[in-house]
Amino acid sequence: MGANTSSLVSEDIEEMARESNLSPREIKRLYKRFQKLDRNQSGSLEADELTMIPELAMNPLFPRIVQIFESVNFREFVKLLSVFSESASEEAKRDFVFRFFDIDQDGFVSSTDLIEILLMLCGSNLTQGELEEISQLIIRDADMDKDGMVSYDDFCACDSLGTISQLCQISLA
Amino acid sequence: MGALFVGAPALCATACRAPRRTHCSVARMCDVKHDAAGTKAVVVLGDLHLHPEAPRMAPFHTARQEILRALADLGVQQSDAFLVSVGDLGAYGIAGTSASFELARDFLRSFGLSYSVVTGNHDLEGLDEFKTDQENLDAWGRVFGPDTDTLTTLTEGLPVFRREIPGSDIVLLGMSTVRFREARGSSHEVYIDDEQLSWFDAQLAKCEMEGKRAFVFTHAPPMGAGLRSLQSVHVKNMCAWLNHSSGRRRRRIFLQKVKQHPCLRLWASGHFHLSHEFEDSVTLVEGRACFLQCGVIGPESSRDGYRQTRIILTDPSLGDSMKMYSVNHHDGGSLRLDASVVGQDSTAVSFALEHYPHDHVGKESWFRTFTPRPDDGCVLEPVQGEDVAAARADKVCWWHTSSGSVLGVHDGMVIEYDEETLAPVGLVMTAEELAGRDVFWISEADALVINPPAEGLSVEVLHPNADGTFARQYQLNKRYRIETKRREQLARQWLTTHRKELEA
Fold first, then answer.
1. Res. A69 pLDDT band, cuts 50 70 90
2. What are residue B98's phi and psi, to 5 degrees?
3. Residues of A with CB under 8 A from a CB of B
4. Which residues of A touch B182 (CB under 8 A)?
5. What's the superkingdom here (chain B) (predicted)?
6. Bridge partner residues of B230 (DSSP)
7. Opening angle at CA B297, ends B296 and B303, nearest 5
8. Domain with B286 in it: what CATH number?
9. Chain A positions in Cβ-Cβ contact with residue B498 (cut-off 8 Å)
10. Which of B181, B473, B495 to probe by mutation at the A interface, max A CB count within 10 Å?
11. For helices A24-37 and A74-82, what crossing angle results, to 10°?
12. I need a surface site. Which of A10, B103, B191, B228 has the fewest CB within 10 A?
């Protein structure tokens, strides 16, 4: 299957099912949804097409979600969403959430990353001082090796109860 | 069929505007004698915003008496008069609640006339009482359904109304906004969904087939109605027109229906809280469809000091003509003929009053829309070759972008206009943001360049949004704002708790 999503053959479905944690039925359902969203039939999702999902358009983290999902083709779309499947591993879910917070993609969740997320969640009503204080307190709690940033290992250590795995789950059936 | 605008007799205009203390004398000077037999009237109530406190209800009870007296002056039997409320029933703070619906229902019933109602944006604002827009709408339907058939099987479960006026060729059609919490942009956009649009199509087709005239009622007007007086806040927040924030196709669809259906002869709306005093508060589109802006009764709701109600009068002896009156509640209920629409072979609108200039009161509180015309003072000053044009904030200037958007500098603001109707869509820069700066349009880059107000500051470049538009979303959905506020409070609480832990 190329960029164009005008058809989805059974070989594609089977291959994607092997690569993801999704069943062929779930993939077929996602494909129908993807085709509806891809209004210009370009084979990939653009920001304005993503805003057509009301639940997403109202999500405070929408700008970050768009950064991750924008321009994805169907194969990438399946891969991204498979993380939210019940059968996806705890590690895959943690990895996705960590990458979600690591906005500048430098391998660490820094104060700058957290401030950006806080701004999306709380608007510009918190003062710069409050934003910095909150981000520093979060890092102080999570930063096991005390290097001022949250590494992937720090992040996993914070999630010893598996909370991320429980929250990072949506029904794709 | 062409439109012909005829100047009104100055004597009548002067007489109509003169303050009056007695009832009906001025109305009679304005030639409002009608053959009582067969005369039908539709009373259109603008945004009510009722509050149960007796002193705040008093002006509405007075207004009701004034309206009923006006109908009597016009020779209309009560059984031949129909009442339509275009929504926004409850006062700010109680809007959208069950109590506000019941209060409005009792008020509407008190006229003793057959009535219909549509929702306005504030009628779905009962955020504390209802979780979803549908729950809110259902509560509205439970209150008004028994009287008006709205949201019942008779209206296909839709928040609409269809009412045929007996003994006439007139059908009243109303459609409601159905989205507040789920609005993509401003919660105050008046949004008509696809189900209602399909119903509307079917109703208009039926009117065409049966040779009837359709009078349409919605809370906000459709884009392209030609109404040129509106509050700037509605442009800034992109909630002036029906489906304003829902993309080009959805906001243009209404005018397309006007063009497609010659039977559509009148469209009345409220929403702006502005009076009937302005030029273009009555307009004619396609030479036959009359658009009416309806004012408000409540002193707290009026934005320009005038308090008015519309009466549309039809008289079978005059063919398919109609007359538009104002009941001036700010002037003891005086009745005034505003305009006549004469149908038959050619359609003419005769304005029966000299309109006040747009800036006669509180100019800062509203916005007058402009359409590019050779005589509107448009200035395009080439700066560097043909691709660059510049304007100062105090000039009027227009640009057509390659993506089809139309931008204009007007009244010190940068405004985006719809390229098809040239109605204002939204603000790109406010007057405060633009003050003292120059604007350059770089057509090769499809970008606006704003000069800094002082030396040493950097030049600002405004690029189009992802969909090719330039208008900025200044107001977010209300539920979104409330939830953001809640998260802000949680963050502050979390901070306080952690500070205490640190201190301990």
1. confident
2. -60, -40
3. 46-48, 51, 54, 57-58, 60, 118, 121-123, 125-126, 130, 133-134, 137
4. 54, 58
5. Eukaryota
6. B367
7. 50
8. 3.60.21.10
9. 137
10. B495
11. 120
12. A10
Least confident stretch, A18-27, B8-17, B244-253, B473-482: B8-17
- pLDDT at position A82: 87
Q: How far apart are CA B250 and CA B238, in angstroms?
A: 13
What is the ipTM metric for this complex? 0.73
pLDDT value at position B358? 47
Of A82, A97, A126, the last residue of a domain is A82
* Residues B99 and B176 reside in one and the same domain: yes
Query: Looking at residue A123, which CATH number applies to its domain?
Result: 1.10.238.10
- The mean pLDDT value for B17-45 works out to 55
CA distance B146 to B148: 6
In this structure, how many other beta carbons lie within 10 angstroms of the beta carbon of residue B206? 14
| HSE of A73, CA atoms in CB hemisphere, 13 A | 11
Q: A139 contacts in B (CB within 8 Å)?
A: none
Q: Position A165: which residue type?
A: S
Q: Find residue B462's DSSP bridge partners.
A: B448
Burial A76-104 (b: 16+ CB within 10 A, else e): ebbeebbbbbeebeeebbbbbbbebbbbe
Cα gap A24→A15, rounded to integer Å: 9
Q: Mind listing the pLDDT tens digit for each residue in B337-392?
A: 988 887 654 456 666 555 554 444 444 445 565 555 545 555 444 444 444 455 55
B495/A125 CB distance under 8 A: no
Split into its structural domains, chain B has a count of 2
Tell me, yes or no, whether B176 and B96 share the same domain.
yes
- Interface contact flag, B498 A137, Cβ < 8 Å: yes
Query: Strand, coil or helix: what is B278?
Result: strand
Q: How many C-beta atoms lie closer than 10 Å to residue B105's C-beta?
A: 20
Asked if A74 and A93 sit in the same domain, the reply is no
pLDDT exceeds 60 at position A50: yes
Domain of A69 in residue numbering reads as 1-82
Q: Do B390 and B319 fall within a single domain?
A: no
Distance to chain B for A122, nearest Cα, Å: 5
Q: Let me know: does A50 contact A38? Beta carbons within 8 Å.
A: no
Last residue of a domain, one of A60, A82, A104: A82
> Does one domain contain both B379 and B296?
no
Per residue, the 3-state secondary structure of B323-359, as one string, reads EEEEEEHHHCCEEEEEEEEECCCCEEEEECCCCECCC
B76: which residues sit within 8 A by CB, 6+ positions away?
A: B34, B36, B39, B40, B41, B313
* Structural domain count, chain A: 2
The residue range of the domain holding B205 is 40-350
User: What secondary structure, in 3-state letters, does B78-95 show?
Assistant: HHHEEEEECCCCECCCCC
Read off the pLDDT of each residue in A95-103 and give the average, rounded to a whole number.
92
pLDDT band with cut points at 50, 70 and 90 for residue B264: very high
| Range with the largest mean pLDDT of A77-91, B55-69, B314-328 | B55-69
